[in-house]
Design brief:
Layout (H helix, E strand, L loop, with lengths): L8 E7 L2 H6 L3 E2 L6 H4 L16 H8 L2 E4 L4 E5 L7 E5 L16 H4 L3 E6 L4 E3 L5 E5 L12 E3 L2 E4 L8 E6 L5 E5 L4 E7 L5 E7 L2 H35 L2
């Protein structure tokens, strides 16, 4: 009996910003284990096991793919009355212009929540239609755990390539301040496949980034449009030849 090894999946990660490529590359979660976990021994002094023996936690990082922060950010979240938010960042490339108005998800926001959408400098591509579960790297965010949440979802990168980071903040009784350090995991992706994921980081031109961001979307749109037209023509031919 012969066993055919399934081909590896390549996750191509593109950016046109040199310092993002140089210092904040996309990488496997095993390279972003938090320091507190590294410093935790497997056994306590009384010989009892610690969380370092937790398979679920270890596999979360071992099987995950991390998008790290490419900036240092100070976030101010207003109280229930003011309901504003503002930020200052070390990176002049950071943008939140595409944040969603809470009216789009008012039943979830419940009048006291807001979305902050951090535009990502990365675009991902795969040749295969692989789904990725997008979640918060909670174990790496102890200091900001109760200030904001990273909203989860399921994505694919064959037809769409954006990797924007959606935060959800809640306005509380008092104003909140928090900081996101540089190179902290912002999002964790887990591929829904047993195949090996090989990460390739690429530094490209702005023009190439535009092509990646919009070109493939237009290509699939045009393909679908052409297929629809072909189907319409086939139906017309059948009706005419009756």
């Amino acid at each position: 009996m012969f066993f055919i090894r399934e081909k590896d999946i390549y996750l191509d990660c593109f950016t046109c910003i040199p310092h993002v490529y140089d210092y904040a590359k996309i990488s496997h979660g095993r390279n972003y284990k938090p320091n507190w976990l590294k410093d935790t021994p497997k056994l306590r002094n009384d010989e009892q096991q610690t969380i370092k023996n937790c398979t679920a936690l270890l596999q979360f990082y071992e099987k995950g793919i991390v998008i790290p922060s490419w900036y240092e950010l100070e976030l101010t979240i207003g109280d229930k009355k003011d309901r504003y938010w503002s930020w200052e960042s070390s990176s002049d490339t950071l943008s939140t212009d595409n944040s969603h108005d809470s009216n789009q998800f008012e039943k979830f926001a419940k009048g006291r929540g807001n979305n902050i959408k951090i535009n990502s400098p990365w675009r991902f591509k795969t040749k295969k239609d692989i789904k990725f579960v997008w979640s918060q790297p909670t174990w790496s965010m102890r200091d900001t755990l109760f200030n904001f949440s990273i909203l989860p979802g399921v994505l694919e990168f064959r037809k769409q390539h954006a990797t924007h980071i959606n935060l959800f903040i809640e306005h509380k009784d008092e104003q909140q301040f928090c900081k996101i350090p540089s190179l902290e995991p912002l999002a964790m992706l887990h591929p829904l496949t047993e195949k090996k994921i090989i990460i390739k980081n690429h530094l490209v031109s702005e023009k190439e980034m535009q092509r990646i961001a919009y070109g493939m979307t237009h290509l699939y749109f045009n393909r679908n449009f052409l297929e629809t037209q072909k189907n319409k023509n086939r139906i017309k031919e059948k009706l005419f030849n009756r």
